[in-house]
Amino acid sequence: MRSIRPTAVRLAAIGLVSALALTACGGEDDPKAADKPSTSQGADTGSDDLPEIPADLTDRLKKHGIDLDEWKKGGWKNWDKDQWLREAEDFVNPVIKDLWKPERMEDAKDPVQTIDTKAASSSDAGVTDPEPASVEAQEENKPYWKHAAPVGKIFFDTPEGAAVCSGTVVKDPNNPGKSNLVWTAGHCVHAGAEGGWYRNIAFIPAYNKDGKSPAELQNASAQDIAPYGQFWADWVSTSGEWIDGTTAATAGASYEYDYAVLHVQPEQGGKSLEETIGTALPVDFDAPSATEIGTMGAWGYPQAPPFNGVQMFKCLDKPVRLSLTQSAPTMFRIGCTMTAGSSGGGWFHVKPDKKTYLVSNTSIGPAGSAGWLAGPQLGQGAEQLFLQMSEKYGDK
């Protein structure tokens, strides 16, 4: 374990904690109880009030020879190459009621994304700063819905089994106050050049709201685990660079473009995600470079040891630059001991208008240790992807 940052940096981080307005609207005791979906996670509610399946979704499945009923009965487990949809326009993710029960969540593993530090630092020494000192991750204050409601956990299925990432509820410019958009990493939704879209992607904001231990969660209520319910992705977009890039970690892959946006719907109907949790964060696509931006904070649910995947943590540090290839933008890098599972979690900074903005997401960490995290700079390409999602699917 590397040493903690000096006191001066830690004081700056404390100031950022008070400035980062990640809180939800609502009372002191419970997160907008009247607005929460009435589902009982992990139990059959007897309700058939499922979201209407869009006609184009059924058509897309049929186009690829997939029967919707068979898919829901387990056909989604077929990861044969000819059944694994990979192109941007081919994403499908039908809601499968009660699929994400507590036991499946517990079995979900992190999609480890690490990179050899020597390969990284030798890619372009001119734009790669010295590795930052490690910053110890701190657990978020409880209850999570009160202090970091936009942050949540993403569950999905891969050929290797159930997997987890982190995500953040972000504002939808075309649907103010009614956003259904979640920001995460590209590797949390798509396997890249060697595969296709992951399946059964669902988002749970403020997961495990009271920060219970894994043992305590064994007897936790559905409301403890998912205080706002489950939200399934009905459309996902990630960068073309991520879809087409290499998946070899030491080759740089396309981590500079490792970002994605989910459009979600409540598993059993209800208000928009933003209305339900009471808040969402704007995205800054024109953030200063790492040398100018000042302190940033990263939030997520790290799972690889020594963490357990069910509790929310955060790190705060001044970013430095990390370059993987000379032809791609440099990445932000901060000292942080969070591990895999925090992938996709939002990085935030406070702009001069005193508002908190999402500026990146956790993409990679070092191979063989846990001392730093890196995330992509969100430029014109990320903004275009985001606006297209908002314009085409935001009001669905």
Automatic annotation (TrEMBL):
Q: Where is this region: Disordered?
A: 27-57, 118-140
Decide whether keyword Signal is in the record.
Answer: yes
Q: Which UniProt keywords apply?
A: Signal
Signal recorded as keyword: yes
Q: Which InterPro entries match?
A: Glutamyl_endopeptidase, Peptidase_S1_PA, Peptidase_S1_PA_chymotrypsin
Q: Where is the signal peptide?
A: 1-26
The name this protein carries in UniProt is Secreted protein
